Amino acid sequence: MPDPSPTILIVETTAGDPPIDFLGDSSDIVYFISMAHSERYGADHPLAKAASLIKRRLRVGMAPLLNFGDAAPESAGEEELLDRLWQDPAPLAQAARAVADAIDVNEEVRDLTSALPELSDRLRELAEMADWASQQGARIRLTYAL
Question: From 5, 41, 67, 140, which residue has the greatest number of CB atoms within 10 Å?
Fold first, then answer.
C-alpha cells in the first residue's frame, strides 16, 4: 500500500473537533478545491475543467468550498487571512453535497475527476462535519497542510 499523501485538509470548528473524521485521504479535496480556485484564471487541468462544468453548466454554488487557506501562515497578512476563513457551516455542507452529487451523477464530471475516485465520498464526509458544526451553532474553517 502506498504511503498516504502528506497533503491534508484540516477542518476546524469553534465547537472543537467534529466527531466524524475522513475515512480516506483528504488530499483529494485539497487538490480539487485548489484546481477549482485556479479555474477562474484559465487553468486547463481536468479538475479545473470539472469545477467549471459544476459551476457554470450545472450551476452549483461552490464558493464555500473555495474559502480555504494554508494552515501555516508565514506572515501577519497570512495570519489575518486565516482569521477571515471562518464561515457558516450550513452553506459549506450544502456545497460539498452538491459537488459530490454532480460527480456521482454527471458522467463528464466523473470522467474529469477520475484521478480522485473517492472525491465524492470525502466531500460527503466534509458535509457531515459541517452539519455537525451547524448543529453546535459553531463556525467552520478549512485549511490545508502540505
Answer: 140
What is the distance between the alpha carbons of residues 120 and 23, in angstroms, rounded to a whole number?
Answer: 12
74 belongs to a structural domain: yes
On whether the CB atoms of residues 37 and 62 are closer than 8 A, the answer is no
On whether residue 2 sits in a domain, the answer given is no
**CB of 116 closer than 8 Å to CB of 28:** yes
Task: Work out how many domains the chain is built from and give that number.
Answer: 1
Say if pTM beats, i.e. exceeds, 0.85: yes
What are 34-70's pLDDT values in tens digits? 999 998 888 889 999 999 999 999 999 999 999 999 9
Residue 20 lies in a domain: no
Torsion sign (Cα): 116, 117, 121, 127? positive
**Strand 8-13 with 140-145, pairing:** antiparallel
* DSSP one-letter code for 121: H
Structural domain of 65: 8-15+25-145
